[in-house]
Specification:
The protein has a 4-stranded mixed beta sheet with strand order 2-1-3-4, with helices on one face. The chain contains 9 helices and 4 strands, in the order βαβαββααααααα. It is globular and about 50 Å long. It is α+β, with helices and mostly antiparallel strands.
Amino acid sequence: MTRPRLFGISGSRAIRAIWGMEETGIDYEHVPVTYGADSKGADYLAVNPNGRIPALIDGDLQLFESMAINLYLAKRYGGALYPSSHEDEARTWQWSVWGISEIEPLQMQIVIQKLFTPEDKRNPKVVEHATRNLQRPLRVLDAALEGRDWLVGSAFSVADLNVASVMHLMGTIGFDYSEHANVQRWADACYARPALARALAKP
């Protein structure tokens, strides 16, 4: 049986899927495709026609989109990482979609300004607007974590993995969410996981 192959580099959104793969503990091949020219060539486009990372090949399955990859990996290989009830499964899907719809678009506005826009062309109003509007979803997350350690069930799961992996970029841009104490506590626990350290150590 061939090993699953995961394409992408840790210094990109692919960190989400690399972290997810490391959480499963299975043997896999990491192919460090970047978001540059090597993800636009014919060989890679045959894996992910969008020309983006990450992507996964597992047997006959070819899969793109980090949330889908993590949900698949957790369900197939992750054991307790994936919920056991239909209700918790639905909540896991909910939080996974929530992360990329409520957090990521606003977060990326700040990322683009701080990391990809020349300093003399940055628009501080964009950062201010996104920072202000991120407070609403952060309050939602903070309330959901009131009196509990994890988003779904009583242990770290793919729901936590998916939301925390989206929010991992907040550390890169120096975004302070410490006023949301439950979010801070939860994020600290997520980012202390050895699987994330292993993922970040990869190219």
